[in-house]
Amino acid sequence: MISNPRRTLDRSEKTVLWLATGLLIVVGLLPVLAMIGKSFLVNGKFSLDLYRDFLSPAPYRKLLLFNSVTLAACTATASTLFGVPLGLLLGKTTIPLRGLLATILTTPLLIPPYILATAWHKILGSHGLLALWLGPESGVLTATWLFGLPGCVFVLSSAFAPIVMLFTIVQIRMIDPRLEEAGRLCTRWPATLRAITLPLMLSRLSLPIILVFVLALGEMTVPSLLRYPVLPVESFMQFAAFYNFGAATASAMPLLFICAIILYLDGLMVNDTDRPIRLRNNSVLMIDLQVWGVAAFIVVAGIVVLSVVAPFFALLADVDSPRLYIDAFVSARDSIVRSLAYATAGATVLTLVGFLCSYIVHLRLSPWSRGLDFILLFLFSLPSGVIAIGLITIWNTGATQWIYSTPVIVLFSYLAQYSALPSRLSQSALSNLPPNLIDAAKLAGVSWFSRTWYILLPLVKDALLLSWAASFIFCLRDVGLTLTLHPPGADTLPVWIFTFMPNAPPRLISALCVIAVVITLVPLGLFYRSLRRIQA
Q: For residue 478, which of 212, 107, 105, 110 has the smallest C-alpha distance?
């Protein structure tokens, strides 16, 4: 591990790193702090009137908060119960086609969750495919189940379980196989898994579970479509429908404090010294399932069919004419172009800033390095509505309309919300570099720019490509930020679909959802190729 907390910095190094940190603070942390401060001011004076109004009538507001926390907790639990076993099967056993199955299971993570909700409505709705096959009575039962907490948990856990699965696979690769080999000398695989593998792996799985919790806590689109009242929907409605900025801020504040408390407690419980030993060759001691491999493959394939194939087949089946795809593309082509342009620009900026932040955090260049890492994770965990309201507080002024009224404000929101993603990926790459490599180059008289451009970047280029692909996907699928902040007439495809879904013909919406899914296939291929190259 490269670590020298007392290194002296070159002037150019200080300038670039301070600019990256300052940009992140200005577009991310400062808007959130400004939103918090403004919520306590009424007519320029300190007041708690916004929160008194929010808490009255108390039963309804408490119900919204209870529903939000319940939805997040149930989604995190379901995602863990499915994600960890899938990660073990696909990352630790000799199950056939495990790479292909893992890639397909990752697909729901790459598209807006409301598309999954739309697809399942085509299957489980009162007039869905299941009702056509089994009769209208079954459609009424499944629709009742879908529109409420069970349906929201089912859709969101389908979308977020891949997060836990991928983290499980990564943690498996970080375990020293010599520890498991020692266990296998004494006992069989079940006992070795229980005594060695699972404790080492589960010690670092709190992060993906927390990420699933906070992502579900801030989710707005799925509860809105499935008519389950939660605080993010209330906050958005107060802002977009009633133009009540104060009520929107007060509705968002409980979510902000819940995220901060959870991340703080996780930081107290998890210590860097708890990390499993990482091997440079990333070797894994695999479990040979033998005759059970076929049974395991059938189970995982069934999950693939249920969580991925079935909803997308429902969308395809709803489009009864190729002409609908042409009409859908023509009606949304400008939004498609903007989606790709926003995602490309956002991914490029995120990769650059994320790499610089990872450089600061990993090398411990200052006492506030760990604080920067917490800020990145905190901003990533915040509901998109909180980020959006904070940015509006700062930039919606007469002097800054040249920023607020352009797509730049959308790029700022991407930078504020998603910088933790490329930063963490880059940190993983930096941790595999030879110790003291940077200091050796510096002692040889190499400038900071040269040692970064000619030494660091070539060594971590695969991780940077993976960071770019992951950032592109998250920017491409974003709804909450872009829906609130995009300039008039400059929406993206996910926003266009979500906005016109209540009024557009259902089959046209299905065609647009299929197009949105297809657009993600190219970055998915790039993501998969980069991941395989890093693991090789």
A: 110
